[in-house]
Amino acid sequence: TPAEMKYVGRKLWQSGYDVYIPTLPGHCAKIRDLLRSNEQDWVEHVVKQLSFLRTRYTHVFAAGLSAGALLALKASTRVQLDGIGVFSPTFFYDGWNVPRTRILLDLAIRWFPRPLHYVFFHFDGFPYGIKHPALQARLRAAYNPMNRVLNPFRKRTSPRHYSSEAVGYPIFFLKTLADLDRLYAVLKADLAKITAPTLVLQASEDDFTSVRNSEFVLSQIASAEKKLVLLDDSYHVITVDRQRDVVAKELQKFIAAHTNPRPATDLSVCTTVRLTGCPDEELLSPV
Known about the structure:
- This protein has helices at 6-14, 31-35, 39-54, 67-75, 102-111, 133-142, 145-150, 164-167, 174-190, 212-220, 244-257, and strands spanning 61-65, 83-87, 121-123, 171-173, 198-203, 225-231, 269-275.
- It is an alpha/beta fold.
- The chain has a domain at 2-100 and 185-282: Rossmann fold, CATH 3.40.50.
- The strands form 2 sheets. The protein has a 5-stranded parallel beta sheet with strand order 1-2-5-6-7, sandwiched between helices. Strands 3-4 form a two-stranded antiparallel sheet.
- Helix 10 links the parallel strand 5 and strand 6 (225-231).
- Helix 1 packs across helix 11 (244-257), helix 4 runs parallel beside helix 9 and helix 5 (102-111) packs across helix 9.
């Protein structure tokens, strides 16, 4: 949801950039609304928003997390971008916390009749892609079924802490997982068309998708300039986790490098950087 990009967006805005964080079709609402949307709706929405910005700004960049990273990559094949920020890209579910039974979901997506895609689901379990203990505790409370039941009866100031906008969805129906699989398949065929400078960031301890995903992106895109930054103190959702400040700073540097004049140089380079974490006291309260 937009909340996952809020901190990074705020840091960019504080640096003087205009920032737009769209809400994808079906998101930040009821799960039934998500089920009524699909990967084509998401792609078209992102393309439409970027096309609008392209007519009004000299420089336009796109960045996204997980499946959002893939949407940014896909959109770059249809809208000219000055750079792409790819955070925790998700092609293969091969992180250390993904159970071996995950293959059963793949079989279900392939063989179950479509009506059953709206019945069976996968629950997003602990640690929820987060290494920060306070955020883990907040998500555990938000995903508690009892809190979901009581949410409509809480005071007006409380529901946002348990809403889909604030914490995302705790479950993924087969229908949505099938939508994501189609997005992966379409993008894999288009990666070679991507030529914009690309910054990839991922946690080396990503619990959901291993670093193989980032390496796959870098090996397939045609960008002359591409960089991989590995974080050592985060899990999958790096934009809100312990090193979110590092993510924001790396993206700031990346954008600045591609909006300011630079001396002529050979940009045909792919680099990998490993960065360490920030002290806990530097973390702001969870967004």
